[in-house]
């Protein structure tokens, strides 16, 4: 009991110090920057929306979605046959309508006529088929390809035995049909994700890294618009198929911006939406009545934990994994950021269909953890502090993220069962690359947000054996259990939601027991914006969808003017004075 109490005191002291530091080094929050009080029923065109992240992206090709940040950028550049609306419902997009056969194995999509890609070419059913085959071809680094295995002919196509994918047929200039080998409850949700979205003909029939991203979304990327590692700016696609949209001239995303810099950029108006917070800042924004109407929590759609590489020692030892899962006091861990974090004991977050509160999941039990250490062959005496695992275990994490704080508490908790950590910090992009590479990272933080709102969106990519790759592996624990594979596959083919939930529940029980992850918390982001950012609402899938957002700011020059030179701006948006409300006061990251 003494060691537990001492750990608790240390953490509370650390949290108090962080809070005092936050108060001591910053003044009270300035007021939100006002809108021009324009009639909200009449959106105005013009201006640029600026967001930022401490992370970075590695690709803009929908056939290679390699991180959690890029989908919101792809959402603005690439339109899909179908998409999710702000309520999380699947709705038509490039497809005007679709029908499903009675047995659930055939999906027929009728495309909108006259849809134009960014290069001016018209979208046809041939482009849909070409883009699907490009994304699913074995030469494409698409980490989601195997999830579409239910499409007829998939095995022959990815195995190099067929030149084309038989299950996707062109039935007219604007009609395309998908045939499945068996019913698949996840097919429509997967089709609404970025990987199969149509790309311009310049993208060819095979993935190449040198291709300039080009789609049919509301915004397009100009040559030079992506300054790798610093920022990306996309501009309005005037040929977008929805008349009058988008309203914004441009959307800019800044990368590698630390949390303190983001806060200052945001309060001065050089950043329009804020999602990355230091804990003291988040509490200030939420407590300030001036800011409260312009903030909102996103859905509980992210799970986090500690991934243990089951192919590497010592985590090929199931009892040691069980020991770690039992040693974590999750109620204590979430004190690091109580406003955003909730204790997690299951792989599926509470807001996701398939969550089952009746499942026991993983629980904190120090006595059980010590018993698992003994069974693993590393008995530890917490009184004498002898025994345990003989050497520090390498733990790889990333800078600026919440795990930099959490790992300090994790080290204290695992020390109680005789496990020491050798913490190695890398930048976020390097972390993602290493984590997905076989036999590179033994132990480290793991997190996943829903791709579609169902349990399979977590269980399949994280714990199915087909999600294991030598590179870009979503299954970062490299965990394989034939029974889990069978249950997840069976759930995919079960169209009854209640029966599907029960099957997924059995899979979760196995995963929690065998502990390829020690689940720690569910995370919900909080978004804050200025009053002049009109019609903004956090998107349940893409996080930020700027298609209908508009800017209504009172003073200052437009952000588009600040970023683009006068002649480039004139070519893009006309040679008159800047249209719409002005936005940012600076040309880029300070």
Would you kindly provide a written description of the structure presented here, covering whatever features stand out?
The protein has 590 residues and is of the alpha+beta class. The protein folds into 3 domains: 42-78 and 217-277 and 529-590, D-Maltodextrin-Binding Protein, domain 2, CATH 3.40.190; 79-203, Dipeptide-binding Protein, Domain 1 (Dipeptide-binding Protein, domain 1, Alpha-Beta Complex), CATH 3.90.76; 303-523, Dipeptide-binding Protein, Domain 3 (Dipeptide-binding Protein, domain 3, Roll), CATH 3.10.105.10. The chain is 28% helix and 18% strand. The protein contains 17 helices and 23 strands. It has helices at 2-24, 70-77, 125-136, 154-158, 187-191, 259-267, 279-287, 318-327, 330-333, 366-376, 403-415, 428-435, 456-463, 482-492, 497-514, 559-563, 566-573, and strands spanning 48-52, 82-84, 90-92, 95-100, 106-111, 168-172, 175-179, 219-227, 231-236, 250-254, 273-274, 295-297, 302-308, 341-343, 380-381, 386-387, 393-398, 421-426, 443-449, 517-523, 526-529, 533-534, 550-551. A 4-stranded mixed sheet has the order 1-10-9-8, covered by helices on one side. It has a 4-stranded antiparallel sheet with strand order 4-5-7-6, covered by helices on one side. The chain has a 4-stranded antiparallel sheet with strand order 14-20-13-19. Helix 13 runs antiparallel to helix 14 (482-492). The longest helix has 23 residues, at 2-24. The model is unreliable at 1-26, 557-562 and 573-590 (pLDDT under 50).
């Amino acid at each position: 009991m003494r060691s537990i109490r001492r750990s608790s005191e240390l953490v509370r002291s650390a949290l108090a110090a962080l809070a005092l530091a936050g108060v001591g080094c910053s003044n009270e929050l300035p007021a939100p920057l006002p809108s021009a009080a324009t009639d909200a029923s009449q959106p105005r065109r013009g201006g640029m929306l600026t967001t930022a992240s401490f992370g970075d992206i590695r690709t803009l090709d929908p056939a290679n979605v390699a991180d959690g940040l890029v989908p919101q950028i792809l959402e603005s550049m690439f339109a899909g046959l179908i998409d999710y609306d702000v309520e999380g419902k699947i709705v038509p997009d490039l497809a005007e309508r679709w029908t499903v056969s009675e047995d659930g194995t055939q999906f027929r999509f009728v495309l909108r006529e006259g849809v134009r890609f960014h290069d001016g070419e018209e979208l046809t059913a041939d482009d849909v088929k070409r883009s699907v085959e490009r994304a699913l071809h074995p030469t494409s680094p698409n980490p989601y390809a195997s999830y579409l295995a239910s499409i007829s002919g998939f095995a022959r196509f990815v195995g190099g035995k067929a030149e084309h994918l038989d299950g996707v047929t062109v039935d007219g200039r604007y009609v395309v049909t998908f045939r499945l080998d068996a019913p698949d409850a996840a097919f429509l949700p997967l089709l609404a994700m970025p990987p199969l979205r149509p790309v311009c003909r310049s993208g060819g029939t095979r993935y190449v890294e040198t291709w300039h991203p080009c789609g049919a979304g509301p915004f397009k990327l100009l040559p030079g618009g992506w300054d790798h590692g610093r920022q990306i700016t996309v501009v309005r696609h005037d040929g977008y198929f929805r008349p009058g949209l988008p309203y914004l001239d441009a959307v800019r995303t800044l990368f590698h911006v630390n949390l303190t810099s983001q806060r200052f950029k945001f309060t001065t108006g050089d950043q329009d939406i804020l999602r990355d917070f230091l804990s003291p800042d988040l509490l200030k924004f939420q407590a300030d009545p001036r800011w409260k109407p312009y903030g909102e929590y996103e859905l509980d759609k992210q799970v986090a934990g500690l991934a243990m590489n089951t192919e590497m020692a010592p985590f090929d030892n199931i009892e040691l994994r069980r020991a770690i899962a039992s040693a974590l006091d999750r109620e204590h861990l979430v004190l690091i950021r109580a406003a955003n974090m909730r204790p997690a004991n299951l792989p599926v977050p509470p807001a996701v269909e398939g969550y089952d509160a009746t499942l026991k999941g993983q629980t904190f039990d120090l006595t059980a953890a010590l018993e698992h250490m003994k069974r693993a062959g590393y008995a530890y005496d917490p009184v004498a502090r002898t025994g345990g695992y003989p050497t520090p275990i390498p733990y790889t994490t990333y800078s600026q993220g919440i795990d930099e704080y959490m790992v300090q508490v994790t080290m204290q908790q695992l020390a109680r069962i005789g496990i020491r950590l050798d913490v190695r910090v890398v930048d976020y992009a390097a972390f993602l690359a290493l984590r997905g590479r076989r036999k590179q990272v033994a132990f480290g933080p793991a997190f996943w947000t829903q791709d579609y709102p169902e349990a399979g969106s977590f269980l399949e990519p994280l714990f199915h054996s087909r999600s294991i790759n030598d590179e870009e592996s979503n299954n970062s624990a490299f965990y394989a259990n034939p029974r889990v594979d069978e249950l997840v596959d069976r759930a995919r083919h079960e169209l009854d939601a209640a029966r599907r939930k029960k099957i997924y529940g059995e899979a979760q029980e196995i995963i929690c027991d065998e502990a390829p992850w020690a689940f720690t918390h569910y995370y919900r982001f909080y978004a804050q914006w200025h009053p002049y950012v009109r019609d903004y609402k956090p998107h349940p899938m893409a996080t930020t969808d700027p298609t209908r957002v508009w800017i209504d700011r009172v003073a200052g020059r437009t952000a588009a003017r600040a970023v683009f030179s006068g002649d480039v701006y004139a070519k893009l948006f006309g040679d008159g004075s800047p249209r719409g409300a002005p936005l940012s006061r600076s040309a880029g990251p300070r």
